[in-house]
Design brief:
303 residues, mainly beta
């Protein structure tokens, strides 16, 4: 009788232990992929329209492609990191940051290198690849450490209220009528490069400063006005045989001799290896243009 009692107690306790163990396993709730705070994309082609989560960090390796008729929306507050030589290729529509029809920028999008010690040229950049669309925009973003941060070919997105820094080239405009306004473009090798003859990109109300070359211009139809073009080694380099008109810009001072020193054109035969035109920069602003540049510097804290 005593032995049988001990046996039943053993069976009861053993069953209790198993039952408790099973209950623990059933109530465990590991995080699903949708709940993770980091998303890694490697040589990824978007299959459908996407809006990213601003509470997550996205890391791109290889090429992230937006195909034709597909839209990627990267909302304010999102951080995107790019691996070595990573590329965002846009054949569809890309919307980065705050929509153009909204009043002001509240949060920034951060597009940067994933290198612990980043340097210019870490990632390739954003390529608008002959999309011909008019819906894409980049507004309220920081773009840094790319080879060409925004490479625009035969399309015309709006790039406004951004900071582009520490890139080899911040913006390239090739056959584009894009609007580039109210940006800080600083500490790049080249700030803006324009290519092509039949388009009229509008470059206005920007701070283009502390670059080796502020604007490298091969498109003399470009509208370049009301910019602060100070503290560059060369504010503007003309690289085509036609003349260029640029008016109402501030060059850092009102001394025409000093302004001429930071402009490379036909007046600088020693610096050139081919025939180029003349830059006509008068009338020019006598003081810094107060409302030019990135209007929300406090948002850059911590980036």
């Amino acid at each position: 009788m005593k032995i049988r009692l001990i046996y039943y107690l053993f069976i009861f306790c053993h069953g209790l232990v198993i039952g408790v163990g099973c209950t623990t396993q059933e109530t465990s709730n590991p995080l699903s992929p949708e709940e993770t705070s980091e998303v890694v994309l490697r040589d990824h082609r978007l299959p459908h329209n996407e809006t990213w989560d601003p509470e997550k960090t996205y890391t791109v390796h290889g090429t992230l492609e937006i195909p034709q008729d597909i839209t990627l929306n990267i909302p304010p507050g999102t951080t995107v990191k790019f691996g070595q030589d990573a590329l965002l290729s846009v054949r569809g529509i890309l919307k980065v940051g705050t929509p153009v029809d909204q009043d002001r920028v509240i949060r920034l999008v951060h597009l940067t290198s994933d290198n612990i010690r980043p340097t210019s040229g870490d990632w390739t950049g954003i390529l608008f690849d002959h999309t011909h669309d008019l819906e894409s925009f980049i507004r309220g973003a920081v773009l840094e450490y790319a080879t060409i941060a925004i490479d625009i070919k035969t399309t015309s997105p709006t790039v406004s209220e951004c900071t582009l820094r520490h890139n080899e080239t911040a913006i390239t405009l090739d056959g584009s009528d894009a609007l580039i306004q109210h940006n800080d473009i600083l500490d790049n090798h080249i700030g803006i490069r324009t290519i092509g003859r039949q388009t009229r990109p509008k470059i206005q109300k920007n701070n283009i400063t502390k670059n080796e070359t502020g604007i490298f211009c091969e498109n003399v139809q470009s509208i370049i006005r009301d910019n602060n073009l100070n503290a560059n080694i060369f504010a503007l380099r003309l690289n085509v045989k036609f003349d260029l008109m640029v008016t109402n810009n501030w060059w850092g001072n009102s001394d025409t001799a000093k302004i001429a020193e930071v402009i490379v054109d036909a007046a600088d035969p020693v610096l050139n290896i081919k025939q180029i035109g003349t830059v006509y920069y008068k009338p020019f602003a006598n003081t810094r243009i107060a409302d030019a540049g990135f209007p929300y510097p406090t948002l850059l804290t911590g980036l």
